[in-house]
Specification:
15 strands; 6-stranded mixed β-sheet; 43% helix
């Protein structure tokens, strides 16, 4: 049954339930009890700990009933079996199928979609291995040393975040073969800065556009092509395309090779498709990418469990809904205490806000409750010296999601004043969780901390490809479950279209007065 959340009888119970006192729950011995009890194992040695969230057993029981009443795991099973869950565009939602099969065979136009995705991944493997072992070289015979991905939105944010997350791991484990770079912004300075720092004669380019018509991406392709031609190089010998089989880029002699995706995989969910496979396999090898897929597949399987106490993605989703719709919190901060995850918050920002930033339900009817929160974040401890002041003492309470690992990726460290840098990093994340939850009273109001500010923690031993895949899938599934709970379509993004249409009017000089007035400011 697809219905709005406020039509569920259990939602009224949630509204009527007593709101727990977080400071009381996390005080003294209570903290140890909650930390041990409010924790769920995840794949690849990760754990989701929600001890410092403003919930208790009563609230958790009601949330479990809400999930059952909204049939979220059943809807997940329907998605896995190929039903058209994307009602806005009348499409299936198949990104889970890129990393494993948990439902029935999905057949479309006589084609088994799991088989199709595996065939494309195998093409990526063959191509990337040829580049990495030197059997496929640049036109002058040089081995390729760098790869540049040209794409925007999900074609950039996810793959870029994953590459940066594994870069140090790849160097330490002798897996990094090609350095990866990314061009996304139509601002010419973005492309110029990347290209000017490279040996173009040893650089491979990946053009990513599912439709083959994305304005910014095609403009940047021309920009790159001009750079190559000015250097006496042929773009057709150094560029591959990631696109759909029906796009103008498909089977085009202007590219060395083409790898295919389809309309059933949204851009922000495409990192485990060929969109992410091409650049990550070239950089780290196809085996590394398959380890990432294995972690994601394991998280997808765990997400089928209907019990929130065994399903970390569902628990995360339910607590997020509770914070948004009962506690009234409008934002969530993603705070990875791992420099490798420096761009992960930006990816999650698109994943969450583009998916659930909706004001109508799956059937286009207005809804009367809040949906997706504002997502932002930075790595710790940098963020502590930036926006934590507001998080601790501001007038708004902002839920926090910490991510931390016991080990660094490079494994290089020093001891200063009796502790290593990694120990200092972990001491800070522990201290911040406690400070936010418990606060501190002071006779000087300026030095008082109210506390009662909720946070969760995803932690593990090390950030490996498998752990990264599990982390990625955790957030994808969390967003999916929240969409089911709110009864919104998490898989379209009509909100990005109007600006594109108006920009074309500005460039074609067929604009109404309200656009023309601004255009004059820039001489357009």
């Amino acid at each position: 049954m697809w219905r709005n959340m406020d039509e569920c009888p259990v939602f009224e119970d949630l509204q009527a339930a007593r709101i727990p006192d977080l400071k009381e729950g996390m005080d003294g011995d209570g903290a140890e009890y909650r930390i041990q009890r409010y924790s769920i194992p995840m794949p690849a040695g990760l754990h989701y700990n929600y001890a410092a969230k403003r919930v208790d057993d009563t609230v958790l029981t009601i949330l479990d009933l809400l999930a059952a009443e909204q049939e979220v795991t059943l809807k997940y099973e329907m998605l896995l079996s190929g039903e058209e869950i994307n009602t806005g565009e009348n499409r299936k939602v198949l990104h889970h199928l890129t990393r494993g099969q948990l439902g029935d065979d999905v057949i479309y136009n006589g084609k088994n979609m799991r088989t199709f995705y595996l065939e494309q991944l195998e093409k990526v493997r063959e191509f990337s291995e040829a580049v990495r072992n030197g059997s496929l070289t640049a036109p002058g015979g040089k081995p390729f040393t760098d790869v540049v991905q040209i794409g925007i939105g999900g074609s950039d944010l996810g793959p870029r975040a994953l590459y940066l997350a594994l870069k140090a791991w790849g160097e330490r484990n002798n897996k990094l073969k090609l350095r990866a770079h990314f061009i996304s912004n139509v601002d010419p300075d973005d492309a110029a800065a990347v290209l000017s720092a490279l040996d173009l004669s040893a650089t491979l380019f990946i053009l990513v556009s599912k439709s083959g018509t994305t304005q910014e991406t095609l403009t940047n392709e021309r920009f790159v092509g001009q750079f190559l031609q000015d250097a006496g190089l042929n773009p057709a010998k150094q560029m591959v395309a990631v696109t759909s089989e029906t796009s103008p880029l498909a089977n085009n002699p202007a590219y060395l090779a083409s790898f295919y995706m389809d309309d059933f995989i949204g851009g922000r969910y495409s990192s485990t498709s060929v969109c992410g496979a091409a650049v990550l396999s070239l950089a780290f090898g196809a085996d590394t990418f398959e380890e990432l897929l294995a972690g994601a597949a394991a998280a997808d399987k765990q997400a089928l469990d209907p019990c929130n106490k065994r399903n970390p993605a569902l628990m995360d989703a339910l607590i997020g809904v509770y914070e948004r719709n009962i506690l009234g919190y409008a934002s969530t901060a993603i705070l990875p205490y791992s420099q490798a995850l420096s761009r992960f918050p930006a990816h999650l920002q698109q994943l969450d806000m583009e998916s659930n930033g909706k004001s109508v339900n799956r059937f286009g009817k207005p809804i009367s409750y809040k949906t997706g929160p504002v997502i932002f974040g930075e790595p710790g401890t940098n963020g502590q010296h930036s926006f934590y002041q507001l998080l601790h003492q501001g007038t708004d309470i902002i839920p926090l999601q910490f991510i931390a690992f016991a080990e660094s990726q490079y494994g290089k460290d020093i001891t200063v004043e009796g502790s290593t840098s990694q120990q200092k990093l972990l001491a800070n994340v522990i201290a911040q969780i406690t400070a936010f939850a418990c606060g501190k009273q002071d006779e000087n109001p300026n030095k008082s901390f109210a506390g009662g500010r909720p946070s969760s923690l995803i932690y593990g031993k090390a950030l490996t490809p498998e752990a990264l895949g599990a982390l990625l899938a955790h957030y994808e599934n969390k967003v999916m479950f929240q969409g089911f709970l709110w009864n919104v379509n998490s898989f379209d993004q009509e909100g990005v279209q109007l600006g594109k249409v108006l920009a074309k009017k500005v460039l074609s000089h067929t604009m109404p007065p309200e656009l023309a007035a601004y255009a004059q400011l820039f001489g357009l």
